[in-house]
Design a protein that fits this description.
This protein has 384 residues and is α+β, with helices and mostly antiparallel strands. It has 11 helices and 12 strands. It folds into 2 domains: 3-47 and 247-382, no CATH class; 63-232, no CATH class. It has helices at residues 3-9, 15-47, 75-81, 152-158, 194-201, 220-230, 240-283, 285-293, 298-334, 347-373, 377-382; strands spanning 57-61, 72-73, 86-97, 117-121, 135-137, 147-151, 165-168, 171-179, 190-192, 206-207, 209-214, 235-239. The strands form 2 sheets. Strands 1, 3, 4, 5, 6, 7, 8, 9, 11 and 12 form a 10-stranded mixed beta sheet that branches. It has a two-stranded antiparallel sheet with strand order 2-10. It is elongated.
Amino acid sequence: MSFLSLVVKNPFRNKTRSSLAIIGIAIGIMVIIALGMVTGGLKASAQSTLKAGAAEISVVQTGSGDFGGGRINESRIADVQKINGVKDAAGTLRATNTSITVQSIVPSPSSGGSFGFSVTGIDRNKLSLAGVDSVNGALYSDGSANEVILGKTAAEELQKNVGDTIVLFGKDFTITGIYETGNFITDGGAFMSLTTLQNLTNNANQVSSIAVKVNENANVTQVSNTIQNTYPNELSTTSAASMANRMNNALSTIDMASWAISILAIVIGGVGVVNTMIMSVYERTREIGVLKAVGWKDRRILSMILGESVVLTLISAVMGTVVAVVGVVILLSVSSIGGVITPSYSPDIFLRAFAVAFAVGIIGGLYPAYRASRLSPTEALRYE
């Protein structure tokens, strides 16, 4: 029997003990990968808000929050457009539709955190500032036409296609197109003519926010400060970059929590590995004595026991990875957020998990391996 086959087969002489050690490590690996896939998908969506063509600055009423819960007079759009460094500006009005029932896609900011279907009004020639660059179908008509374009996530959840109708604010609207931006919040709603939404919600000449695109050579921070300084106590600004960074910071907190849970599970699993390997060394004392008597060096014994420990933890990593991937896919397929989050399959997530498993294998097997390598052949052969 070769050295490699010994290393692979020896850990499973006591299948029950080895299985318990594997399960303990696999739980920690599963948590690392599962949360890594979900948070990675959310981070990718946050970064999509910085895509080329979309507005870099959002202008809202002071004190209304980042999502524009207040109202701004439409005349301010032209005023902001004149500020140095501003390339383009567009007014947007956000409202929450309550006339259709959907499994909650995302909480609507304008609904005070409750679940609802978000509808945004914006002139059709300004849609690129909202991140809508391509539409499957046609754009809606400006004015009072009852036409909308629907986000891909919303269309899938509501089972709607181009040409279908949808009831919004008690009226039938024709879906002229389906859009996809990559941003899970934007893709979970709908866009219509600004004038139409103003009329439906009794917000004539009012907008929730102003989307601002800056010149290529302009400094976003400087333009933001100029807008706020020009209209103090009236307008405040938020950059897309800062919003994405805030979201990433929140997701980083989730990452830290997942690491804390994982470390706890890995410590428990690591203790199981140490116990498994120590018991294996005790049970094979005479065998190790024979190997040393026929010429095996200490370092070869050390390598064998460490190898067996690593085999246990790498099998744990494979099991944890499979369970995590399958679990995340199933969870998202049966959950209402399935169309919102696209799990990340970044190699970094899997490499990190396998690195942790390998480290646990080395650390967990170090003492048992050292103990085995220091056994005296004569004493080991007399052991019962």
